[in-house]
TrEMBL record:
Protein name in UniProt: Methyltransferase, TIGR04325 family
The protein's enzyme class: transferase
EC number: 2.1.1.-
Top-rank lineage group of the source organism: Bacteria
A biological process from GO: methylation
Coiled coil: none
Keyword Flavoprotein tagged: no
GO MF term set: methyltransferase activity
Alphabetical keyword list: Methyltransferase, Transferase
InterPro entries: Put_MTase_LIC12133, SAM-dependent_MTases_sf
Key word Methyltransferase present: yes
């Protein structure tokens, strides 16, 4: 039944037609969508528009202790045994790029979960500095968790501008949530980071050749605007700052399925390695 609903709403022209019936959208929002995890809803022309919609549902954004508890998993000490397959692509590149003394800035690194995965696979050897930048609730829980774990190479902060200058910057499943990643209204990511890193690894972003658009994604206690990137615009931002695309991979474990908008369905997300030319 669930599969049939998905197929109709998100993968067939019938979904777009049903979207013209306001009562059906209302029913879906109230009875299927609200309070769930990781479902998308709506298509908007800007972050601000998606944010206004989200505010009508409830709390907006990642600054939320319930989410921090979910993501940082302070109850169990071991990192999750199962994790997203595409993170292996990031680990492969990291295994080639990390040098003794490297500084990694993990923007949107939550409670340091990816640091734990890299440790599990033996990638992290001192001297190394790994700095997570995330929202204050995540950072607080991350600090406590890693103090308990006795992690020696990780630090946390909530401002990208105050992070150490990175050799390698990670943005894993996060830039789609930023209000203005490319500095279209103010400073963008690369205007804020203290120094331009040589290597940037981006994973788990919704991207395609369609124009930029925004949707709303529910995260149990909060609703979060999420950007669906236009590929040319995304690459142009980094290329204008001296970066060249080195590698790109598919993220089959993540999809964007937006009810009533089958035309914007993405059957996979993507990941990228960009390197700054000397
Ligand atoms: C989907 S989680 C990804 C977590 C982790 N990087 C991973 O791959 O599993 C998105 C993360 O981005 C963080 N985030 C969102 N907006 C942010 C911002 N403006 N500054 C810092 N972190 C942010 C969230 O708090 C959350 O931890």
């Amino acid at each position: 039944m669930k599969q049939l609903f998905k197929a109709l709403m998100m993968h067939s022209a019938i979904g777009a037609w049903l979207g013209k019936l306001p009562f059906l959208k209302g029913l879906y929002l109230r009875h299927v969508w609200a309070g769930r995890m990781d479902l998308f809803y709506g298509l908007f022309g800007s972050y601000a528009e998606a944010e206004r919609f989200s505010a009508n549902i409830g709390k907006v954004g990642w600054h939320d202790d319930t989410l921090a508890e979910l993501l940082v998993r302070d109850a169990e000490v071991e990192a999750p045994t199962l994790f997203q397959t595409s993170q292996f692509a990031v680990m492969l590149w990291l295994s080639k790029l990390l040098q003794p003394g490297s500084t990694v800035v993990d923007f949107g690194g939550a409670g340091g979960i990816f640091y734990e995965l890299c440790e599990r696979y033996g990638l992290l050897k001192p001297p190394l500095s790994w700095h997570v930048v995330d929202m204050p609730d995540m950072v607080e829980r991350g600090r406590q968790r890693h103090a308990r774990l006795g992690s020696t190479m990780i630090s946390f902060g909530s401002e990208l501008a105050e992070a150490p200058a990175p050799d390698i910057m990670l943005m894993l499943g996060m830039i789609q949530y930023l209000p203005d990643p490319f500095g279209e209204q103010g400073p963008g990511i690369l205007d804020t980071v203290p120094a331009l890193p040589e290597h940037i690894l981006i994973n788990k972003i919704p991207i395609s050749d369609a124009p930029d658009a925004w949707t709303a994604q529910n995260h149990v206690s909060s609703v979060i605007p999420c950007r669906l990137f236009n590929r040319a615009k995304f690459l142009a931002y980094f290329e204008a700052r001296g970066y060249r695309l080195q590698d790109r991979w598919l993220v089959p474990e993540l999809q964007a399925e937006i009810p009533f908008h089958p035309e914007r369905t993405l059957t996979y997300f993507e990941g990228f390695y960009l390197r700054r030319q000397a």
